[in-house]
Structures are given as structure tokens and as C-alpha cells.
Amino acid sequence: MKAPSLLSILTIALITITTGCSTTPEQPSAPAGPVVEKTPGNDFPTRDRVEYVLNCVAQHGGLSYINQYACGCKIDKIAEKLTFSEYEAAKTFNYLKSTPGESGGVFRDPKQSKDLRAQLKEAEAYAEKSCFVK
User: Fold this and answer.
1) pLDDT (tens digit per residue) in 12-28
2) Which end of the chain, N or C, is less surrounded by CB atoms within 10 Å?
């Protein structure tokens, strides 16, 4: 069998280059629509919003239009003040801070725990003031 000549290899290389075959992927074009900045309130999953509203309604005397509206408003106001990851961490610290002994200290004592719990308490107070009909 005859080895390919240098001329054959150069011809194949020239054909490949001129026909546009390359291994470099095309660069994506800019998005057609406007770019929407993500705000803290937009990162709360629907499931967590619904869970909050259902728990809130149950704590405030059961399902009524006023309770449903006020509790929906309340989670929206909390979402304005905290990102979902902050909310979730604060909720976890709040829930587990009453664990007795050293195990509970992990959730009670760190500065991050205290700061997030304080932020959640402040956000809830803001939401309560903004949303509930007194």
C-alpha cells in the first residue's frame, strides 16, 4: 500500500479549511429579549411559598379570604428582604435551635445563626406590619 503523498495531505487540508469545517463551535448570539436581573424575591420556589401560606393560614384561624391574602402578602414581603437560601437557613436555625445540649448549640450559638434568625425576625415583623389587617 502506498503512503499518502504530501500533496494529497495538503489538498485535503486546503479543502477542509475552505469549506468551513472546523472544530471551533459557533459563539452564541446575544439573547433577543431584555435581560431580567434576578432579585431576591424571585428565587423562592412556588412549593415553599405555598407551604408558608398554608402554615400561616392555619396559625391565623383557618382559611378565609383575608387570611389567604394576608399570608400570601407576608411571604412576598419576606422574599423582598431575604434570598431563599437565607430564608431557608434562618428557618432551619429557628427550628433546630431548641435542640437540647451541645447538638443544639451548633444551631443556636454561631454568629451566622444569630444573624440570620434576626434577619428573619425583622423580615417577618416588616411583613406582619405591611400585610395583616388589624
Assistant:
1) 544 544 444 445 455 55
2) N
